[in-house]
Structure to design on (411 residues):
């Protein structure tokens, strides 16, 4: 019995320690973002990796999300005889919810896992210690460009996702199912307000920060993981952890931001 | 293998992203790009604006001529004061009537203006004196049902 309580306390302490570690990690990163000199090139490289190279995935998922919204929305709305609302349903769904969330989830899968594995391997093979020995701040060198790039890329990717999704919905709704062209676009222009766009923007900024932060911090503190194991096994486990944690965190924050801003 | 021009790709990505943002913000979010004022405000007081939302349309003869910018309560008269922004090309006579209508049975509420015949026009910032409140379907039904009692 005493063992059981001890185990519970031990586990709780470990998680609190981990949360604190990641919080301090984020704090150090923010200080380093604001501190000159500002180097543009590493950020561009990371925007290329996180943003530009995710574009294909985002366009494909965006198109199919819009198409499925158009299809499902049409069949639901036609029961009430209000197919004309299809444009607003697709646009509102994409801009407020699906755009930011699905973009973030896709970017976690594509870039978040890569960031975590990259930093994890560097930690595992003691390259981060080497950087420190050479008086190169690993936060500045490794993490800051990724975080800045995440905050820049995610909103842009989200907008691409939204626009492609709206066109996908148009393709299904107007070209295939025969909703009128004007009803689709005018309904959309009328019902989407700046508040909705703003909510999408806030979400995508927060998600961009969250996903890079969690992936990078998980990899960075590979050596402090309790289950141990440097090397391939540790890196693979930490990457899985990072992807799961980042996805769950983003869905939780999605709810919180919606609840606050609605 | 050809080396990828990172700057070019990132530049293209940024352009696409901002183009998407511009489309959504300006077309959908109704952001005024250069802050140009092509409308003027007019206010109107109603007994009830139940169901009317900010951003709802103002129509004359079914044509969109502006929108509702704010709805607030006059704390002394207990009336709803609605501010409308009307497009510059449209002039309203002094005796125009503003009424709140519903598009269809379940549709959104909007403000419909019936033009009057007066010579004078309402100045920007002026007030539409004649108003008709929102029609409550439930009230009408209950009147009909209980009319004999």
């Amino acid at each position: 019995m005493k063992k059981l309580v001890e185990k519970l306390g031990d586990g709780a302490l470990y998680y609190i320690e981990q949360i604190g570690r990641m919080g301090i990690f984020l704090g150090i990163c923010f200080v380093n973002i604001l501190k000159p000199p500002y180097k543009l090139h590493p950020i561009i490289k990371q925007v290329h990796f996180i943003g530009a190279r995710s574009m294909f995935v985002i366009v494909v998922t965006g198109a199919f999300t819009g198409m499925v919204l158009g299809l499902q929305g049409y069949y639901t709305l036609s029961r009430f005889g209000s197919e004309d609302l299809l444009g607003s349903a697709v646009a509102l769904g994409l801009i407020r919810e699906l755009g930011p969330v699905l973009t973030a989830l896709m970017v976690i899968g594509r870039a978040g896992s890569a960031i975590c594995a990259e930093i994890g391997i560097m930690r595992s093979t003691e390259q981060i210690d080497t950087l420190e020995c050479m008086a190169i701040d690993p936060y500045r060198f490794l993490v800051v460009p990724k975080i800045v790039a995440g905050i820049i890329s995610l909103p842009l990717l989200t907008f691409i996702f939204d626009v492609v999704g709206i066109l996908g919905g148009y393709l299904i709704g107007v070209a295939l199912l025969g909703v009128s062209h004007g009803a689709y676009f005018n309904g959309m222009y009328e019902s989407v307000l700046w508040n909705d766009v703003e909510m999408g923007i806030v979400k995508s900024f927060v998600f961009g920060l969250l996903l890079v932060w969690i992936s990078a911090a998980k990899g960075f503190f590979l050596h402090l993981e309790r289950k141990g194991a440097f090397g391939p096994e540790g890196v693979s486990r930490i990457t899985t952890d990072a992807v799961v944690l980042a996805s769950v965190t983003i869905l939780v924050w999605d709810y919180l931001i919606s609840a606050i801003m609605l | 293998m050809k080396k990828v021009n990172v700057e070019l790709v990132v530049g293209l990505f940024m352009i696409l992203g901002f183009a998407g943002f511009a489309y959504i913000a300006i077309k959908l979010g109704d952001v005024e790009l250069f802050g140009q004022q092509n409308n003027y405000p007019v206010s109107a007081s109603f007994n009830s604006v139940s169901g009317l939302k900010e951003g709802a349309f103002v129509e004359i003869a079914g044509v969109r001529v502006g929108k509702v910018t704010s709805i607030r309560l006059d704390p002394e008269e207990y009336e709803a004061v609605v501010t409308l922004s009307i497009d510059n090309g449209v002039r309203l006579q002094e005796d125009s009537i503003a009424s709140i209508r519903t598009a269809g049975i379940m549709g959104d509420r909007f403000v419909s203006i019936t033009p009057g015949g007066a010579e004078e026009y309402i100045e920007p910032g002026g007030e539409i004196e004649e108003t008709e409140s929102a029609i409550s379907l439930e009230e009408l039904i209950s009147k009909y049902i209980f009319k004999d009692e």
